[in-house]
Amino acid sequence: MNKLTRRRFLIASGVTAAGALAAGATQVDWTQLLDAAQHNPLDPNAGVLVVVTLYGGNDGLNTVVPASEHAYQDARPELAYKPEEVLDLGEGLGLNPGMKGLKGLWDNKELAIVRGVGYPKPDHSHFRSMAIWQTASPESSVPTGWLGRWLDASGADPLRAVSVEPVLPPMLAGARTAAASLPVSGLKLPSGALGKSFQGLATADPGEGVWQARAARSVADLYRAEQVLGKTVARDPKGKHQKGALAAQLDLVAGLIEAGVPTRVYSVSLGGFDTHADERGTQQRLLAELDDALTPFAQRLGRTDRGRQAVVLVYSEFGRRVAANASEGTDHGTAGPVFVLGNGVRGGFHGAEPSLTDLDNGDLKETTDFRDVYATLLEGVLGTDAGKVLPDHSGRLDGLLP
């Protein structure tokens, strides 16, 4: 191709210095994160918490399935899974058939399932229930999230927590600071001959002005980010993510962890779990997407020293009613299972399985307070006195972490 100068390329392609800087950035950009990893890397022995939110209220009974129980089969005759359809976990329970990868983690003792997780005096409202989970305040509304309060207590540095989502979740907002936000972008870097020329633009020439030099640095930053974090920011030519949205988020998180970015908490999410009708196919598809994202993520974490310090929490704002509705779906319920996984987790069942015959007006009764899980992770992963974040709660979940 003809000689390509930085000025000509930027003009011809419509890329400005500001545009190049913004392509991989929202509240924080690649430069900030990767410079922080270089100049202030995370202690290799520091724990990292990755929070996965399943928005919509995932049906726990069709996730961790009591398929052999007559009460389960009777309550949802068309929606229930048969014992031979689920992935056997023991104790009469099985994983949804869409979760084969997580079954492998279970077999390797890397997956913990906390049963019957909920909160006192449950509320069937999405808005109120999610507010309770994200603020860890069941009794009254508070303006701060539980991990936002952790940020306040741990030094108020926004880079200590990063949301890889389109919107910063309330749980990451404190009284004095909020987490940084870095949504997965749709950037696709040029390839072939054009790509080589474009990459050459990353070298500043002597005597260039400030904006030309900044454009050069922007190009260098983008290639550096791709080298460290992989192809997670790329989209296919039709503009769609090459991977599912959650897988792309977790790929990005894995790269940041491996790079030594000084972030202790990451937040990602997957929506669509409000299955009032035709639940079985929809939920199994979503759980398979969760499985396809979480399994390689966990396996990747297990291959590096930094990754082995990470623990993943997977929760939803509530479970579903025990009985199916007339549309072969389920309505808003209460308690449900929570997944905790990682190299440092004691795999297996934790907490008591809720009864299917002793119900609260058709709902499962909570057997594990969600704040017990939070307190355990705050102390065992983040090394923080849980009382500073959950001042009115003293419970812990014994045996979940070493």
Automatic annotation (TrEMBL):
This is DUF1501 domain-containing protein. The keyword Disulfide bond does not apply. Residues 1-22 form the signal peptide. It comes from the Bacteria. Keywords: Signal. InterPro entries: DUF1501 (IPR010869), TAT_signal (IPR006311). The keyword Signal applies.
